[in-house]
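Tokens in:
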């Protein structure tokens, strides 16, 4: 049963943002926190696998959902298509610096095929849980924006912040499709557990490969920071997923972060650009 609240019926905006990275951009784009850079890059490497999977899962329901939800889902697909297209470009830089991450990408492709061989209902639940994870990551990032992004490479920071802001914006769409076509909380909880374990494993392995290439793994500080990042993220993601699986819950019940959605309003359709992170106009300072 799809629950519609005022404002939920609107299709999502399409922002065709493209990013031009400096030729000398180093993939450790948050120089004072390479462990975060490596983890974020690992998540980015997974986007061209996870997001097309979510898109296919949504498309597979189009003959069973009402026209309004279908129109919204098509707008969701346009957003996700923009995300993984832009992340692919960014990933080329990461792969060029750390060719060993290709092995991680192969594992991601295998996982992608494994999920697609599950039942159609599981794929939709997996997409819905995946979007809840994205919302949780956005909420965690919003709470650490100054600490992480203020001294980051601005183009890369803009890519990640634009993506996360749109994840907040479309947090309900796949969940609505899941409720309209299935709604099994048990299946959702299982998909959430699989999704969280998958993203945690790939983020960890992907980060280790990059940090190994940077010769940082012998440094105890690297391990301390990785442990701190993992615990901090788990404190947001685990409760978010548990709450999202409870009967009667809907992503709409989650409070949106404030800053990223406000910043997203600065998208300029005439130039198809977001203001470069760190060059914020008056009235939007942190
Ligand atoms: Fe996305
Ligand atoms: Fe998403």
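Residues out:
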């Amino acid at each position: 049963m799809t629950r519609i609240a005022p404002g939920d019926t609107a299709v999502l905006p399409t922002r065709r943002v493209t990013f031009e990275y400096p030729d000398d951009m180093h993939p450790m784009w948050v120089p004072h926190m390479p462990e975060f850079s490596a983890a974020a890059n690992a998540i980015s490497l997974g986007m061209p696998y996870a997001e097309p999977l979510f898109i296919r899962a949504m498309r597979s329901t189009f003959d069973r959902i009402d026209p309004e939800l279908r129109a919204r889902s098509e707008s969701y697909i346009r957003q996700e298509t923009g995300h993984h297209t832009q992340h692919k470009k960014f990933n080329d830089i990461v792969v060029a610096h750390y060719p060993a991450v290709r092995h991680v990408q192969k594992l991601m492709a295998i996982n992608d095929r494994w999920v697609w061989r599950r039942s159609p209902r599981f794929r939709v639940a997996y997409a819905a849980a995946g979007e809840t994870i994205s919302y949780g990551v956005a909420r965690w990032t919003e709470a650490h924006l100054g600490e992480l992004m203020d001294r980051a490479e601005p183009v890369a920071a803009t890519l990640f912040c634009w993506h996360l802001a749109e994840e907040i914006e479309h947090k309900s769409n796949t969940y609505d499709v899941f409720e309209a076509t299935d709604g099994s909380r048990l299946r959702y909880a299982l998909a959430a557990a699989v999704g969280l374990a998958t993203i945690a494993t790939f983020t960890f392995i992907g980060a280790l490969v990059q940090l190994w290439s940077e010769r940082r793994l012998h440094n105890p500080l690297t391990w301390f920071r990785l442990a701190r990042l993992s615990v901090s993220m788990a404190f947001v993601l685990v409760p978010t997923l548990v709450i999202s699986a409870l009967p009667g819950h809907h992503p709409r019940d989650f409070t949106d972060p404030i800053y990223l959605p406000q910043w997203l309003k600065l998208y300029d359709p005439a130039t198809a650009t977001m203001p470069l992170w760190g060059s914020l106009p008056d009235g939007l300072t942190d």
